[in-house]
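Researcher: We plan to redesign the surface later, but first we want a full-length starting point. Tokens attached.
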């Protein structure tokens, strides 16, 4: 639903001196980060439901759980709501669902706090050699120098 709602029609004019003698139009998806942002918003307010099957007819149905969940009350989901049946497991710790985040690489200013689940992160300094100052030679050959630099690597603590 989020992807379908984000489809827009984009048009471009073609013609002499900017005239619009021919107009070409196409349907275009919203940028991926916008779709992701909308899905994340829906995820954060998703409704927990229970699935039941009528034994006589075999028809399935979903309904809100008997007790209030996370303050949503007995809200009946709309067709545009994101719903879920089971609570997500913790991905912070090692389990049958996840290898956890211990030792996982993160980016200091971007995501270490959230990825490391509040456990903090280690900093390791290392020297790396990478291709640099690359240039195309003739038509089909790329020539690069090797540059050595020091970098810091951040990984989640145990």
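Model: Full-length starting sequence:
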């Amino acid at each position: 639903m989020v992807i379908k709602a984000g489809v827009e029609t984009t048009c471009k004019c073609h013609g002499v001196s900017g005239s619009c003698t021919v107009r070409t139009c196409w349907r275009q998806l919203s940028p991926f980060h916008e779709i992701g942002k909308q899905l994340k918003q829906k995820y954060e307010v998703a409704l927990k439901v229970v699935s039941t099957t009528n034994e006589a007819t075999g028809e399935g149905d979903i309904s809100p759980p008997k007790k209030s969940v996370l303050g949503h009350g007995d809200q009946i989901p709309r067709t545009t709501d994101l719903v879920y049946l089971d609570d997500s497991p913790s991905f912070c710790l090692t389990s049958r669902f996840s290898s956890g985040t211990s030792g996982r690489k993160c980016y200091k200013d971007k995501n270490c706090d959230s990825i490391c689940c509040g456990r903090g992160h280690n900093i390791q300094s290392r020297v790396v050699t990478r291709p640099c100052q690359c240039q195309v030679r003739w038509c089909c050959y790329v020539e690069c120098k090797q540059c050595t630099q020091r970098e810091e690597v951040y990984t989640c603590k145990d």
